[in-house]
């Protein structure tokens, strides 16, 4: 999860001159809040409106910052925005505090990494006995690809005996061995954010006891590194990359070539690989000189290995944990629903769609099962009010007044803070103010819950009629195309209006894609050479989602192990053809609990579209049509070798 960046606007105010070189950080005594507010406006020229919107803590921090910057020196070769945002990202509070020694050390790290001379004496942290450290429950950035991918790169360059020592430590909660991995990491192979996270994680691995959560993170990366080294040996830093060395350059070149083909320029949909291994420098350089994406022996895709070995060019690796989604097909759906190219897709009316979005927010507020915190819920209050006002949803005047009154009661009449700096209903601004003011809970208008119930009752007939009509049409299409229909119909009495509308939207989208491809009303762009003649929308969407539509190079998925065992390898052939296995049936599952439906089938991968072509592998596929919040997602939620 990314760190909250809501305070960056205040940092931009502090450093409004983009090329200031921070120096002479001085611990000055800050005056009282009233004096600080006056000086910020009269002495330092900060807009009164901006000062009025600041909390006490931000006023005092801002004032101290302004005083410390009076003697700053201009250096036009330094990108202060980059420094500030990277420094802020590393600080525990999400923004720097000049009087906090830990924050100063984080600035020191940023300047060191960017080869900028320190404008102050070097600061050292007090040494801590490694065995006395309490193991943090989660490493900073533990859920980010920057850390997960960076750790794989790091361990792939380490000695096997050191990898085994790390596995032993992470596998035993009582192991207190002090390891000696280097924390000197080159940004260009990782990216600045990744290298910083990896360095911190390795420092923790070296000296701390490892919590269960952290152990799984390390073991997953270590298991993948062992698989890589089993084929390629110990890699030198310039042989494996996710940074600016070659990786980002190759992906940028691919985006250019994809754009020239008239397709959506999405690097991840061209190649889902997270890191590249270079068997020789020539292949990477040739890749950057290619004029075509996927046609010919000198195309960009041809520079990627079709086998997981050390012969030839680039090996693309997609890193996955034991439980992970396989990929989304939303952007492919958008290609096939462009009104300028194809017949207009059947869809919910604008009023129905906005009503569905409104119900999503209201149902979270009224649910007794919701685990959302008051800070999150107050955002739904504001968002529900915004949807009503923006879309002029009929018969919601009383509800809008009740939502507005809830904000007024919660913020004790201060609607300026409830709205935020931009004014109007804005969920992010409302949540930010809620947190800054230290409000502990929401004070609801006494009529809100009954008004939500009334709206649900009024909408139920329209939602139910829409559901029945769209589902019948979807089922008729399945029968016409020889698909097995769902074995059991959902119980409509167990579904509220929100779920009925969401299921309706999923049925409409699926029917449009299924019937359109089958009747050739929809034409798959020729660039997707492996599925250009595909009549089965479920197969086409799956192939696109997992990188087997013919636009991607061959890449290899490595599935890590939380026990440290060698990772499992699965190849995805860029020129491979995906079809439903003839010996199996397609199963469509549609239940009242699911805000959509999902499709299960066995996919067979061959090297040509011919039925006589040898099947290289088979996968059990689960393809979801479902809503996440108010967004319809089509994604392969599960993909396993069959």
Structural overview:
The protein is α+β, with helices and mostly antiparallel strands and 642 residues long. The protein has four domains: 8-113, no CATH class; 140-240, no CATH class; 350-462, no CATH class; 483-641, no CATH class. It has 23 helices and 13 strands. The strands form three sheets. Strands 6, 9, 10, 11, 12 and 13 form a six-stranded antiparallel β-sheet that branches. A five-stranded mixed β-sheet has the order 3-4-5-7-8, sandwiched between helices. Strands 1-2 form a two-stranded antiparallel ribbon. Helix 7 packs across helix 10 (192-207), helix 8 (160-171) runs antiparallel to helix 11 (212-232) and helix 17 packs antiparallel against helix 18 (397-410). The longest helix has 33 residues, at 448-480. It is globular, with a radius of gyration of 28 Å. 39% of the residues are buried.
Summarize the structure.
This protein is of the alpha+beta class. The chain has helices spanning 8-14, 33-42, 48-52, 56-68, 80-90, 101-113, 145-156, 160-171, 187-190, 192-207, 212-232, 247-260, 267-270, 281-289, 330-335, 350-366, 374-391, 397-410, 415-419, 427-436, 448-480, 497-518, 537-545; strands spanning 20-21, 73-74, 240-241, 275-278, 314-320, 327-328, 555-559, 568-572, 577-580, 587-589, 596-606, 615-628, 631-641.
Rg over alpha carbons: 28 Å
Instruction: Write down the overall geometry.
Output: globular
The share of residues in extended strands comes to: 5-15%
Largest sheet: 6 strands, antiparallel
- Counting DSSP E segments of at least 2 residues, the number of strands comes to 13
């Amino acid at each position: 999860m990314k760190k909250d960046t809501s305070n960056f606007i205040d940092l931009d105010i502090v450093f409004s001159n983009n090329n200031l070189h921070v120096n002479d950080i001085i611990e000055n005594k800050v005056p009282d809040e009233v004096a600080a507010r006056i000086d910020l406006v009269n002495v330092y020229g900060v807009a009164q409106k901006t000062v009025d919107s600041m909390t006490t803590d931000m006023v005092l921090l801002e004032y101290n910052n302004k005083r410390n910057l009076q003697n700053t020196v201009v250096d036009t070769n330094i990108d202060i925005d980059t420094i500030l945002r990277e420094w802020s990202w590393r600080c525990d509070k999400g923004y720097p505090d000049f009087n906090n020694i830990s924050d100063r050390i984080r600035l020191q790290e940023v300047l060191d990494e960017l080869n900028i001379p320190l404008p102050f004496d070097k600061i050292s942290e007090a040494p801590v006995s490694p065995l006395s450290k309490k193991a943090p429950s989660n490493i900073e950035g533990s859920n980010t690809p920057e850390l997960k991918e960076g750790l794989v790169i790091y361990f792939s360059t380490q000695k096997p005996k050191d990898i085994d020592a790390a596995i032993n430590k992470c596998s035993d909660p009582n192991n207190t061995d002090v390891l000696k991995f280097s924390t000197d990491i080159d940004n260009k192979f990782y990216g600045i954010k990744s290298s910083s996270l990896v360095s911190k994680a390795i420092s923790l691995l070296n000296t701390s006891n490892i919590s269960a959560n952290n152990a799984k993170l390390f073991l997953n990366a270590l298991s993948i590194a062992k698989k890589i080294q089993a084929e390629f040996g110990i890699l030198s830093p310039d042989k494996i990359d996710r940074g600016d060395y070659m990786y980002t350059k190759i992906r940028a070149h691919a985006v250019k070539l994809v754009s020239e083909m008239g397709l959506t320029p999405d690097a991840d949909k061209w190649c889902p690989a997270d890191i590249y291994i270079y068997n020789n420098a020539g292949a990477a350089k040739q890749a950057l000189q290619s004029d075509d994406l996927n046609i010919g022996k000198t195309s960009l895709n041809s520079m990627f290995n079709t086998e997981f070995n050390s012969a030839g060019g680039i090996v693309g690796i997609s890193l996955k944990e034991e439980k992970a989604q396989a990929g989304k097909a939303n952007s492919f759906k958008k290609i096939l629903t462009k009104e300028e190219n194809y017949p207009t897709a059947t869809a919910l009316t604008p009023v129905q769609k906005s009503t569905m979005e409104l119900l999503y927010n209201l149902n979270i507020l009224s649910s007794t099962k919701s685990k959302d915190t008051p800070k999150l819920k107050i955002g739904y209050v504001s968002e529900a009010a915004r949807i009503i006002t923006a879309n002029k949803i009929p018969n919601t005047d009383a509800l809008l007044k009740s939502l507005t009154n809830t904000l007024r009661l919660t913020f004790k009449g201060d609607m300026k803070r409830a709205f935020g700096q931009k004014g109007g209903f804005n969920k992010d601004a409302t949540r930010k103010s809620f947190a800054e003011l230290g409000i502990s809970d929401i004070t609801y208008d006494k009529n809100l819950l009954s008004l939500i119930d009334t709206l649900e009752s009024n909408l139920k007939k329209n939602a139910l009629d829409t559901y029945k009509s769209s589902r019948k049409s979807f089922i008729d299409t399945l029968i016409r195309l020889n698909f097995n229909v769902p074995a059991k119909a959902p119980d409509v009495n167990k579904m509220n209006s929100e779920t009925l509308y969401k299921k309706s939207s999923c049925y409409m989208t699926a029917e449009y894609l299924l019937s359109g491809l089958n009747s050739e009303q929809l034409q798959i762009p020729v660039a997707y050479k492996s599925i250009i003649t595909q009549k089965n929308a479920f197969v086409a969407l799956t192939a696109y989602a997992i990188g087997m539509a013919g636009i991607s190079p061959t890449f290899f998925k490595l599935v890590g192990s939380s026990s440290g065992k060698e990772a499992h390898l699965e190849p995805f052939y860029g020129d491979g053809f995906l079809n439903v296995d003839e010996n199996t049936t397609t199963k469509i599952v549609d239940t009242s609990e699911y805000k959509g439906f999902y499709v299960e089938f066995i996919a067979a991968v061959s090297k040509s579209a011919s039925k006589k072509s040898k099947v290289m592998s088979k996968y059990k596929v689960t393809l979801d049509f479902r809503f996440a919040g108010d967004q319809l997602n089509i994604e392969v939620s599960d993909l396993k070798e069959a």
